[in-house]
Design goal:
The chain is of the alpha+beta class. It has helices spanning 33-46, 79-88, 108-127, 147-155, 181-191, and strands at residues 4-8, 12-18, 21-29, 52-59, 65-69, 94-101, 129-142, 160-166, 170-176, 197-209. Helix 2 (79-88) crosses helix 3.
């Protein structure tokens, strides 16, 4: 698992008009090629009457799966420009479909490359990019008398609270970088006068919008 990587936040859609042609960017996260293909097919079904539904995707930790499809546009003028934007933005596990409704004015090869690239870039901006960073989830179980103080201190710190469980005691789940677990635990012991029960849980990706 990569220590960190960039991908899209979730599903996004963004439309621009260039020389009377509509370019609609549809963007989604896809962690397998099957997910990417399914997404592309769903957009094609939705926009079955479009002139083109061009697509590209990057899948895998090391971008081993890369595909680009011009869907009837001149070779290399649609799918590849979409893919190049994804690479330039250093995104992973991302699929893009650009739906084009032809407006009657031909753009030429250079114009198409610029149009599909611009549509992808603006679509990504509208969707949002997140950094996924591998973190440990540390569990801290304490008496309710510590709730207010600990929640305030944690929210003012560099650590992010994943969840708070209100059971017989209150339990915090906190994202902590692997190399900071020991110092975090020391801080919590000091903060609670040793009354907090600490344990390290699973390793998960924490997402931060950038």
């Amino acid at each position: 698992m990569l220590p960190s990587y960039l991908t899209v936040k979730d599903y996004g859609e963004h439309e621009i008009v260039i020389e009377k042609s509509r370019f609609i960017a549809h963007i989604s996260r896809a962690e397998t090629e099957e997910e990417a293909i399914e997404f592309i097919q769903s957009i094609k079904k939705k926009h079955w009457n479009a002139t083109h539904n061009c697509s590209a995707y990057l899948i895998g930790e090391h971008d081993l799966i890369q595909k680009a499809n011009d869907d009837g546009e001149p070779s290399g003028t649609a799918g590849v420009p979409i893919l190049e934007v994804l690479k330039k933005r250093k995104l992973k596990d991302t699929v893009v479909v650009i739906t084009r409704y032809f407006g009657g004015i031909k753009l030429g090869a250079g114009g198409l490359i610029r149009a599909y690239g611009k549509s992808t870039s603006e679509g990504l901006n509208a969707t949002g990019i997140v950094e996924r960073k591998l973190m440990k989830v540390v569990h801290l179980k304490v008496d309710y008398t510590w709730l207010g103080k600990l929640e305030n201190e944690l929210r003012a710190s560099v650590y992010e609270i994943k969840e708070i469980h209100y059971l017989d005691a209150v339990e915090f789940e906190v994202y902590v970088e692997d190399g900071l677990v020991e110092s975090f635990n020391d801080w919590m012991v000091e903060m609670t006068n040793g009354q907090g029960k600490l344990s390290t849980g699973e390793t998960l990706y924490q997402e931060t919008l950038i």
